[in-house]
Write a structure and sequence with these properties.
Blueprint: E1 2-3, H1 11-19, E2 22-24, E3 27-29, E4 31-35, E5 49-54, E6 57-62, H2 87-99, H3 105-116, H4 123-138, E7 142-146, H5 174-177, H6 189-192, H7 200-207, H8 211-215
Helix pairs in contact: 2-3
Length: about 220
């Protein structure tokens, strides 16, 4: 499977990774995934934004990149995170305000914020550290590889191409196809109803160790 890099990836991103992960009496078979390392940066995508459930409904957070508008002309691995403004403090405060009453927030808070506060130089490094964190905490085992060159959309060189499928503004049927468009506990669901496909953070903070059971539809 071929993915674009993502910041706090949505549930569907992890559901596809989990699809290839098997755990049986014969042993563990990790999912093998590829992350596109030769595409250009694209604004208003999961590459530097995510959706979460706050007290006033679904919200989005993003982070700035150093190169501004010209970042779209850069290969994704060359795009740098702009750490010159206090956006990380605002992000951590927003996450805490949204999830402080969730069942597992206190369990994961310090370790997650430690990952964020490491402040890697590039977008690609930053997102990869977050992806690895959530893979570890959900229990989904995956062998992460990177593309050796850019391949056109629809190519099967790296298996199923999800680069343009998983997008905040383009609906898809991933969760339906995996029988995962089902509710789990959310703090504000009583007020606004269940909202599917938020950041994997939403599932982990609310379900904790059971997140893997949800993703594997067990």
């Amino acid at each position: 499977m071929l993915f674009s890099t993502a910041y706090f990836p949505p549930v569907e991103y992890f559901a596809k990774i989990a699809e290839g992960f098997t755990l049986s009496p014969d042993g563990v078979k990790p999912s093998v995934i590829y992350i596109e390392a030769f595409e250009h940066y694209i604004k208003q995508t999961y590459r530097n934004r995510f959706k979460f459930y706050a007290a006033d409904g679904v919200q989005s957070l993003s982070y700035p990149v150093v190169h501004g508008e010209s970042a779209q002309n850069l290969v994704i691995t060359d795009v740098e995170v702009d750490w010159s403004t206090p956006w990380l403090v605002r992000t951590e405060r927003a996450i805490a305000a949204a999830y402080e009453s969730s069942a597992y927030f206190d369990h994961y808070r310090d370790s997650l914020f430690s990952v964020l506060e490491a402040r890697p130089r590039t977008l690609f490094e930053f997102n990869l550290s977050i992806l690895n964190y959530f893979l570890d905490k959900t229990g989904i085992q995956a062998e992460i590889r990177f593309t050796g060159e850019y391949t056109p959309a629809g190519s099967d060189t790296y298996g199923e191409d999800l680069r343009d499928v998983i997008h905040p503004k383009r609906p898809n049927t991933i969760l339906e196809d995996l029988s995962l468009k089902k509710p789990y506990f959310q703090v504000f669901a009583r007020k606004y109803g269940f909202v599917p496909n938020l950041s994997i953070m939403d599932l982990l903070f609310n379900e904790g160790p059971d997140a893997i059971l949800y993703l594997k539809n067990l």
